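Re: How this chain folds, sequence and tokenised backbone to follow
How to read it: Take the token row as a discrete description of the fold.
Start of record: The labelled sequence and token lines come straight after this line.
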Amino acid sequence: MAKARRYFYECILECDVPWIGPDQRKERWPMRGNQAVQPMAVLHSLRTHPSPGYTARGQRIPPDYIVTDKPIGKCYTGEVTKRVSRPEHLRGGAPRVMRPKTSKVKFLLLDPDEVDSEIRRSAHDLNWGPNLFDDGDRDVMPTGAEEARAAGLATIAGTA
């Protein structure tokens, strides 16, 4: 049987890689009475860092590496432009407009020939959930709560 391909990525921009469980929840906190108690083994998002530079001896400090079983979304490996809903003015916030937003490249796919034992040993295995593999190129619209809050601010300011 053929060996499954593993995708190794090098971090080139500091970022948080989110973790979401199979049922789309980040954590499962059991309730003890009316208190939510954090379980002992909870996966949180992982912060990856690029190479911080060189040592005093001139050796490059390695960046963080991640490895997955399938390619990650293009919002991590390429520039994605999408439109997001933002307030028209910095203060006041009542009218919202759609503005373009371009994501930055965060990971670089490594060629299989570049992957050595050192990279394999230090790579974080990230086969966590669907959020990492989503392309993230859909427009972001305000929620009903945000629209209601903006309408409330407009009536208080007397602009509506």
Remarks:
- The chain has one domain: 7-22+43-157.
- Residues 7-22+43-157 form one domain.
- DSSP finds four helices and ten strands in the chain.
